[in-house]
Amino acid sequence: MLVVVAPGQGAQIPGFLKSWLEEPAFADHIHWLSTVCGIDLEHYGSEADADSIRDTAIAQPLIVGTGLLGARALFSRSVGRPALIDVAAGHSLGELTVAASVGMLSEEQTMVLVRERGRAMAATAAKSAAGMVAVLGGDPDDVQATIERLGLVTVNDNGPGQVVAAGARVAIARLVAEPPAATRIRPLQIAGAFHTPEVEHVAVRLGRCARAITPLTPPARLLSNLDGEVVTDGREMLDRIVRQVSLPVRWGLCMETMKRLGVTGLLELPPASTLTRIARRALPGIEAFALNTPDQLDDARVFVDKHNTAPGPA
Q1: Entry pTM
Q2: The domain that contains 54 carries what CATH number?
Q3: pLDDT tens digits for 25-34?
């Protein structure tokens, strides 16, 4: 059984779109997505530096647009044909990527939603004295107690040994200076306390856009970041994607569901590596494939054929 996954913010690195833009068909598709969202994804994905693509208003459409390009290239070259796969799951922002990849939303609807999401979160971050930090390793109870003692909030549970906390930068500085035993602390290049009540207004703004959309019921089973549960109704999933902006990402629960469903292969859409690294540690026995460049497409199709059990051609 195949699960297709899509990463969230922070997966971008300078120049990661260059190889895709060398093929005219892929370059044209990115140009179209750029036109839809009003952001020059071609420039930001090939020429811009790390600081430029760290901007939330740029990073979010860039990551989603790249994921949509990868899904289109891998599963179909015909417009509007959803990927016929077993299960799909996105990490935070990546939920929008997979929603379009499986045909729940159109690419155009998705790029408008992610543009508005990115703009609103960037505006909040610009006025915020908060940030986010990854805590790797350590005793889970000790880690959680420390996070709470410092007034931070656990916003990502990425499975055993990896959580992300958000809150005031002064509290993050204390966590860096006095980490829990046997942990590594990695401040993230994300401004603002995302997935907390600080961005509830973003969910309200996104909700207004989402109510104007009629999502389709996807052929794939989608896993929700809210609780790791399988969602098969398009409206319910879109409502969950909206709410999830200000609520914690329970990726660990999504991976538990993958195991329960009998997933054997996990393929991460570009820009890939974050979720495949987590899977290789947390999901032993499940094969993982990180799709990042077009020269991997043939191998990726072999991987899909090996694990996919959905009816019809992939």
Answers
A1: 0.95
A2: 3.40.366.10
A3: 999 999 999 9
